[in-house]
Amino acid sequence: MKVIYVNNQIQLGGAETVVQQLRLGLKSLGHKSPFYVSHGKSYPRGEAIIPFYPRILSRLSHTRLHSIIEKLFPRSVWTDRSFRHLAKIDADIIHIHNFHGDYASIESLAFVAKKKPVVWTFHAFWGITGGCDHPKNCFRYQDACGECPQVGIWPIGKLDNTAVQLQNKLAMLSSAPLNIVAPSHHLAEKVRNSKVGKTWNVFEIPNGVDPSRFHPERKRDAEFRRSLGLKIDLPIVLVVNRNFQDTQKGHAMVHEALAMNAGTDAQIVLAGGNSQWAASQLPHRLNIIDAGYVASREHMARLFEAADIFLFASPAENFPCVILEAMSAGCCVVATPTSGVIEQIEHDKTGFLADSIGGEALGNIMRNVLSNRSSWKQIGDSARRRVEERFSEQVMVNRHLALYEEII
């Protein structure tokens, strides 16, 4: 079997993690799984990674020649043409991820879907809305978008073209023979009940993680903590964020929750983009350790292994891989009750959920958890077992393989 994977980045966040898990999982089973990618400065050779945009142009576009290269060889035009060419390539399945009309137009997506079996994993809601990734409490996408409250927030630009975007999706994608993978039941139901996606085939396959990458027993290893520059006598609270300054990533709620517990003896580890900025915003009474942006998966796993508590906040989510990683490492997860997250965590059994999505509610549950250390290990052990039984990487790969075979 040959499955072509398509994404905009090789490594960035949860979507990229899932792509790598799937393609390497299929490769280990003897299948072909080339990976086509649209954005980046350089791309590894010899790993079946194929750039939509030529390597030399990708490198030059990250120099002072960017404006010239973009004028002569516009990336979006080039990648769209390369994407359409997939319709002619020998492949059983084309599996796309993180599609925002970025590396290809919706016209090209419809074109390819009519030529080849296409699987599209929804890592957010963009495919059924007028352009937002998470509609939150807005239901305009079910009728006719416009007057969007998220104008100016990525992926919507500064101009409100949400009504046009939704109409284009209805015209070009609603009748396309697409197979949608939704990691959460919540998202699957939203797609099935949407105007754009009501005729698509929708499958629920949760994201997964390889539990063998994490060793929870290290939490009680003093030398291990010391090797990471962490104090051995204080509980460790880990906060991970791809970009702490992204208003959609929940740092404001984390800030409020931590400020409410500023008098607690604990070390707060911040890992992610703009972590130095995040640390500067928190109360000085907190014991902050700035881990910076962690590019190494191995080092990130070590931080999870050392942490006692994993603190997570988001106003809107799908099925975050970072929570599965924390659970695999035996962390006691404390999180906002965001859609998708509530399918991962069983409150008071495999983690703790705040009463509502907000900083005060998160701070209240955080205070209760910090005062009850005896529960951390039991919760962490139960979380690990839940991942092994329901959310393992191998289960995810096997379910995708079965889906591919069914579609073929």
What does this structure look like?
- The chain has 408 residues and is of the alpha/beta class.
- It has 2 domains: 3-208 and 393-407, Glycogen Phosphorylase B (Rossmann fold); 211-390, 3-Layer(aba) Sandwich (Rossmann fold), CATH 3.40.50.2000.
- Helices cover 38% and strands 14% of the residues.
- The protein contains 16 helices and 13 strands.
- It has helices spanning 14-28, 55-60, 66-72, 75-84, 106-115, 162-172, 185-192, 222-227, 251-260, 275-281, 297-306, 321-328, 341-344, 359-370, 376-390, 393-407; strands at 3-7, 35-37, 49-51, 93-96, 118-121, 178-182, 201-204, 236-243, 267-273, 287-292, 309-312, 332-335, 352-353.
- Strands 3-2-1-4-5-6-7 form a 7-stranded parallel sheet. It has a 6-stranded parallel sheet with strand order 10-9-8-11-12-13, with helices on both faces.
- The longest helix is centred in the N-terminal third of the chain and has 15 residues, at 14-28.
- It is globular, with a radius of gyration of 22 Å.
List the helices and strands and how they pair.
Blueprint: E1 3-7, H1 14-28, E2 35-37, E3 49-51, H2 55-60, H3 66-72, H4 75-84, E4 93-96, H5 106-115, E5 118-121, H6 162-172, E6 178-182, H7 185-192, E7 201-204, H8 222-227, E8 236-243, H9 251-260, E9 267-273, H10 275-281, E10 287-292, H11 297-306, E11 309-312, H12 321-328, E12 332-335, H13 341-344, E13 352-353, H14 359-370, H15 376-390, H16 393-407
Parallel strand pairs: 1-2, 1-4, 2-3, 4-5, 5-6, 6-7, 8-9, 8-11, 9-10, 11-12, 12-13
Helix pairs in contact: 1-16, 4-5, 9-14
